[in-house]
Amino acid sequence: MSDKLNVQEVIDQLKQDPEFAPNVKHYKVTEGKAAIYASFPLNLHSSLKTALATKGIHQLYSHQRIAFDLAQQKKSFTAVTPTASGKSLCYHLPVLQSILEDDSSRALYLFPTKALAQDQLADLHELIEASGEKILSYTYDGDTAPGLRTKVRKSGHVVLTNPDMLHSGILPHHTKWVSLFENLKYIVIDELHTYKGVFGTHVAHVLRRLKRICTYYGSNPVFICTSATIANPKQLAESLTNSSMELIANNGAPSGKKHFLFYNPPVVHETFGIRRSAVLEVRDIASRLYREGIQTIIFAKSRVRVEMLVTYMKELTKKKLMDKTIMGYRGGYLPSERRKIEKGLRDGTIKTVVSTNALELGIDIGQLQACVMTGYPGNIASALQQAGRAGRRQDDALIIYVAQSMALDQYIIEHPNYLLGGAPEEAHIHPDNIVILMDHLRCAAFELPFSTHDHYAEFDVQQLLEFLAAEGVLILAEDHWHWMTERFPASEVSLRSASQENVVIIDKTKPKETKVIGEMDRFSAMTLLHEEAIYLHQGTQFQVEMLDWEEKKAYVTEVDVDYFTDANLAVELKVISEDKMYNAEGQSIAFGDLAVLAIPTIFKKIRFDSHDNIGSGPIHLPPEELHTSSTWLAFDIPESWTEAALTDAMTGAAHAMQSFIPLFVQCDRTDIHVVPQVKAVHTQKPTFFIYDSYPGGIGLSEKMYDQWEPLLQQAADHVKKCECESGCPICTGPPESDVNIKQGAEQLLKSLAGGGLRVL
Amino acid sequence: MSYEQNLMKMKGLLKKSKADSPAAKETSKIVQASSPSYEAQWMSAGLEKETNQYGTVYKKVVNYDESYTHGRFQLAELTATLQRWKSSGERHPLAPDPDKKLLFFDTETTGLKGTGTLIFLIGLIEQQGNGFKMTQYVLPGPAHEAAFLYSTGLWEKPATLVMYNGKSFDMPQLDTRWTMNRNLLPPLPKHDLIDLLHGSRRIWKHEMASFKLPAVEEEQLGFVREDDIPGHMAPIIYQDAVKNGRAELLMKILLHNEYDILSLVTLYIHSTDLLLQEELSGTAISQTNIGKWYADLKSEARAIAVLEQVIEEYGTQHPTTHFHFGFLLKKERKYREALDAFGVCMTKSQGRERIIALEEMAKIYEHKVKDCTKALQLSGVARGLLKKDASLTPQFTSRMDTALVKREMRLKRKLFPGQAQNSTK
């Protein structure tokens, strides 16, 4: 083994490599820190001390101790816990302590996914077993055997579940869970940062319903949340649980020195600014680390990419029989298979693992030496979680970020401090969204009748209840609103879909094995899933054979063609109300409600590379209407600009802005839309609209209302720095003809960011 | 879109209070709800009013004399039925505890599941002397639930409830409603449950396609419903009765419920007859099902007696009887007789049953008769059938094939010790 290098030696070698070194745009080092310990609490149950001792733990990290003390004082708290900082003890210890003190105590653990709950059960079992005490813990989800369910409900001390199961399997049947709800001491919310956007908003309401049921049964549980690093953990937790929270931000766990290499693949297509495929670069880099014996985790964004990389990497070991040193790891693997991989990583028999973000979450795989990121995962919290996978306690860790040819990826390469500067994004939820609120108000009314003086969490809902009565789902009897229909509201509300009616994409390439490969919101489906559209799914081309708009199903078959389709959507925007407004020089910025009417018109078939138009056809779909919230910026027509020039510039600018919104609010690119209008009906001026894709609005555009200037600035900088000549998919979107849209877009963005158009 | 537009208007109405305002706690205070505005309408449709400490409930009582006939049966035959159970000494899922009151029980609800589903009608029939008394309790409205539940008297002492699908539907619903009122009402004791849906499935498996109660009534009880409103209409009709006070259709639901409970009585009589009769009266299929049921309940003597009777009557016409008989004989260590029984299946049965019978014969030849050549041959026949038969499920085929291949390897080792064998792979 003496010929193998350590992390520092590998870095030195890479820095001197003439092929590699020029592509490293930045080299940053973050220093490690030593552990901060605290002694066991005096009243910590002796069985728990024994259990910890078996695991070799004789003192706590400072944050674990603070967590225990706060829980003892019945204070809800949120602990910010980076990867591998012993976060689970923050909740296991107080929970088990409460059960050992009083056998009737109960705790509910919520994990964002079923798989994670099952993983954590193993961890908890281990601790309980080491304590030698009889404490019953179970997962409760769709996989729980019917014969076991009664036992879980009646005698499970700790029940591990997910929000979906709580929503439709537990709360509407709370009478079967009396012993849990009467004695509920703790509600643990792990991976708090995953509860954002529409999903987070739904979960916020599920938790309000949970609290309502607890109050009914006379319990007042303490919330314990753990979160990855985000900008606003306390605020998110308070808004999610509607409870006040203490924050534990100082983590006592040690961390090693981390070396970050920011690697930008070389440009291979000058005009379009296209770079060499990040996947191929990652393959080469990871192969090198493999040969040096560095235990490495590679993150890729999709399952297909994972499989691609695994196939590439296995080339290295194909001459060895039964070699298991390189493995893939992603959702869709069997639990037993995953356990085996996790074990292989911990004991070092697996040298390289390629993963989707499945391993970002809190699964115990020990610590690896290096982490290679294929592209930017979309937000800082995820990126830091991924990076956190590398770094054994004492050793140095190597993190190589390989950028893709996308706007955000390239932005990170230009601004490494954005990633390392310790200012991650905010995660937001919007419990006020009226559509989601009404969905859960129905569920709550089903679970327990509201009285005529009840509130629902922080909302005064009497008028909404009247509305539901007028709709025929409630009746008022004496002073209570009773559910009076055979419907089961929880089954009509899905926590995970962006809108209630998503279009399901069904692959019928093999007629006997049709399968659902994805779903898409109605709005996007109009332009991406119309009949004859070429739909790209994880790198594979599919043609849409039939779009059943009534049933919201798109049937696709796999094809191999040399063109893509591009549909035109005529969008009419109608401002319903203007709630907030301010004027800047030559600009007015407003926030309010918007009706979006979208009518798909025609689609074009465009050949790859040449971008020739090789055919077109009409799209026959009814117009879709969306009521949502929006912020808009109107400005005076700059002098000496033709309407055509302004149109091009605004189109390019809108494209650039859309890419950067995720820098300001944690969301997916498709959660929010930017639409330019040269002469908007409402303002009679050139106007950019930013609106939420979800009915009723989800708080994203409201957030952007205050952020126009930095957004414009960011977009302007990016367009300017882009290496293309006249606009490319990375900055302004592909130019339609030979027009140089880059210059116009950049000028427009810059002057708008400067607060007026005088600069021109 | 109009729903969404309405909601956007509601947005303006949404008010927030700073603090988390406390939700209502469970009350243990009895507040008597006043009688609903539609009381007169309901009473003129034929309901009586009853009041108790919790408030108001409506009910309908019907008495049947001993000659009352429902379908092919007289209700009064129940007396003989209960006597039969008593003298049989069987511990059977349909056997009642003679010390407890026997109630035939059915509910109608406003939905299918969850705490937002109310029971609005509970119908009970009990034998009184030579006659029968049916009482149907009707929920006056959602505010009167405690009075309604209390009036049924189900809290008084443990009874035996005879129901149709009650184990998975009516009882969990009743438990839920009771829990929702648990601070007001005395606790609900644990009642014995006899579920005739389970019984019907056991007795008429492979003989009936549907086990919906009306189907069982028509095919087994000689009762055809007239003027019946299907049960799934019940929620809408009750809602209408509460919202608009109209009770005509509600009375039809009471009729539907009455049919249900009367059928429970006659179905109980008929099922018991089939299970406990001396002389064979059902078909070969249902009698074999009954024999199998006794076998599963470890009541082997009775199982053998029933199956022997079927064989006596039908000979080898119904090979399935021999199939189950074979397993019973094997358990009794009567291997020769078991081989004969499975032998019938080898020639007469089809599909899965035939293959399993062959496997059983191979087992007996290998381990008991110690004739490995015969065992090997039978296993080979079974494997041949397994390959040809496309109607078998893939799971069965692969599981059985693995078992047979393993058996044959072992048999070959026993037959030809020391010789090279095929590898398992």
From TrEMBL, chain A:
<keyword id="KW-0378">Hydrolase</keyword>
<feature type="domain" description="Helicase C-terminal">
    <location>
        <begin position="281"/>
        <end position="435"/>
    </location>
</feature>
<dbReference type="Pfam" id="PF00271">
    <property type="entry name" value="Helicase_C"/>
</dbReference>
<protein>
    <submittedName>
        <fullName>DEAD/DEAH box helicase</fullName>
        <ecNumber>3.6.4.-</ecNumber>
    </submittedName>
</protein>
<dbReference type="InterPro" id="IPR055227">
    <property type="entry name" value="HRQ1_WHD"/>
</dbReference>
<dbReference type="Pfam" id="PF09369">
    <property type="entry name" value="MZB"/>
</dbReference>
<dbReference type="InterPro" id="IPR027417">
    <property type="entry name" value="P-loop_NTPase"/>
</dbReference>
<dbReference type="GO" id="GO:0016787">
    <property type="term" value="F:hydrolase activity"/>
</dbReference>
<dbReference type="InterPro" id="IPR001650">
    <property type="entry name" value="Helicase_C-like"/>
</dbReference>
<dbReference type="Pfam" id="PF00270">
    <property type="entry name" value="DEAD"/>
</dbReference>
<dbReference type="InterPro" id="IPR011545">
    <property type="entry name" value="DEAD/DEAH_box_helicase_dom"/>
</dbReference>
<dbReference type="InterPro" id="IPR018973">
    <property type="entry name" value="MZB"/>
</dbReference>
<dbReference type="Pfam" id="PF22982">
    <property type="entry name" value="WHD_HRQ1"/>
</dbReference>
<dbReference type="GO" id="GO:0004386">
    <property type="term" value="F:helicase activity"/>
</dbReference>
<dbReference type="InterPro" id="IPR014001">
    <property type="entry name" value="Helicase_ATP-bd"/>
</dbReference>
<keyword id="KW-0547">Nucleotide-binding</keyword>
<feature type="domain" description="Helicase ATP-binding">
    <location>
        <begin position="68"/>
        <end position="248"/>
    </location>
</feature>
<keyword id="KW-0347">Helicase</keyword>
<keyword id="KW-0067">ATP-binding</keyword>
TrEMBL record, chain B:
<dbReference type="InterPro" id="IPR036397">
    <property type="entry name" value="RNaseH_sf"/>
</dbReference>
<dbReference type="Pfam" id="PF13482">
    <property type="entry name" value="RNase_H_2"/>
</dbReference>
<protein>
    <submittedName>
        <fullName>Ribonuclease H-like domain-containing protein</fullName>
    </submittedName>
</protein>
<dbReference type="InterPro" id="IPR011990">
    <property type="entry name" value="TPR-like_helical_dom_sf"/>
</dbReference>
<feature type="domain" description="YprB ribonuclease H-like">
    <location>
        <begin position="103"/>
        <end position="270"/>
    </location>
</feature>
<dbReference type="InterPro" id="IPR012337">
    <property type="entry name" value="RNaseH-like_sf"/>
</dbReference>
<dbReference type="InterPro" id="IPR038720">
    <property type="entry name" value="YprB_RNase_H-like_dom"/>
</dbReference>
